[in-house]
Design a protein that fits this description.
By secondary structure, the chain is of the alpha/beta class. It has nine helices and eight strands. The longest helix has 20 residues, at 170-189. The two termini are 22 Å apart. It binds pyridoxal-5'-phosphate. Pyridoxal-5'-phosphate (PLP) binds at residues 34, 36, 57, 79, 163, 201-203, 217-221.
C-alpha cells in the first residue's frame, strides 16, 4: 500500500503543475487534506510530512481526533453539512467552516464562538445552478447572506465554496468553478474583502486551480479510499 507521505507529495506535485500551467504560484493554493473516516495515525503521518490544514465532515468523528492531535499545531476545517444542534461544537473546535448556507446557522456560529479564540473563518457554500440537493445557498440569495455574515462580529467572511456534481469532462468541471468565481468577483467588486475560493477535490483539482481556487480539499488522493464510518 502506498503511504500517505508518498501520496501527499504526489498531490503537491499535481497542485504545483496545475498552478504553473496557468501562471499561478504554488503557494497561492492552500491544500486542505480531507481526513474524514481516516484514523489519527494517518493524520500524524501527513502532519509529519508538513501538512497543516485538515478537513472533516462529521463533527462527532472529528472531535476525538482534534483532541488526540492537540499536541500538533493544526488548522481544522469543517466541510460537512452543519446541523443546528452541532453549531456549538463546530465553532468551539474548528478554525474554518466552508459550508455556511443560511443566516440562522451563521448567527449560531457567531453567538457561540469562544471569546478566547479569534473570529471563525467562514466560506459560504453556493449551490451550483446545475444541482439541487448538494447543499449551498441559492445564488439569488447569496448577496444578502454574504452581507449579513460579513456584519457578524465573531465571524470572518473569507470567501465562497462549492461542491459541484462530479464530471469527468474538464470543460464541464471548469464551467461550475467559473460560476463560483464570478460570484466571488462580483461580491469583491461590491466591497466585501474576500480572499478565498474553496473548490476542487481529488477528481477536479486541476480545473479548480485553473479557475482560481485558493483552497483545494483533497481526501482520496492523500489518504486512499474512505473507510466505513464506525
Ligand atoms: C469528502 C470531501 C472532499 C474530498 O473529496 P475527495 O474526492 O476524496 O478528494 C472535499 N470536499 C468535501 C465537501 C467533501 O465532503
Amino acid at each position: 500500500m502506498t503511504s500517505v507521505t508518498v501520496r501527499l507529495s504526489d498531490v503537491r506535485r499535481r497542485i504545483e503543475a496545475a498552478a504553473r500551467g496557468c501562471g499561478r504560484t504554488t503557494d497561492s493554493v492552500r491544500l486542505v487534506a480531507v481526513c474524514k473516516t481516516h484514523p489519527v495515525e494517518a493524520i500524524r503521518e501527513a502532519a509529519a510530512a508538513g501538512q497543516r490544514d485538515f478537513g472533516e465532515n462529521y463533527v462527532q468523528d472529528a472531535l476525538p481526533k482534534i483532541e488526540a492531535l492537540a499536541d500538533l499545531d493544526l488548522v481544522w476545517h469543517f466541510i460537512g453539512r452543519i446541523q443546528s444542534n452541532k453549531t456549538r461544537a463546530v465553532t468551539e473546535h474548528f478554525d474554518w467552516v466552508h459550508t455556511v448556507d443560511r443566516a440562522r446557522i451563521a448567527e449560531r456560529l457567531d453567538a457561540r464562538r469562544p471569546a478566547d479564540r479569534g473570529p471563525l473563518n467562514v466560506c459560504i457554500q453556493v449551490r451550483s445552478t446545475a444541482t439541487d440537493g448538494h447543499g449551498g445557498v441559492d445564488p439569488d440569495d447569496l448577496d444578502d447572506l454574504a452581507r449579513r455574515v460579513a456584519d457578524m462580529p465573531r465571524l470572518a467572511l473569507r470567501g465562497l465554496m462549492c461542491l459541484p456534481p462530479q464530471a469527468s469532462d474538464v470543460d464541464r468541471q471548469r464551467a461550475h468553478f467559473r460560476e463560483l468565481r464570478r460570484h466571488f468577483e462580483r461580491l469583491k467588486a461590491d466591497g466585501l474583502p474576500l480572499d478565498t475560493l474553496s473548490m476542487g477535490m481529488t477528481g477536479d483539482l486541476e480545473a479548480a486551480i485553473a479557475e482560481g481556487a485558493t483552497q483545494v480539499r483533497i481526501g482520496t488522493a492523500i489518504f486512499g479510499p474512505r473507510r466505513p464510518r464506525t
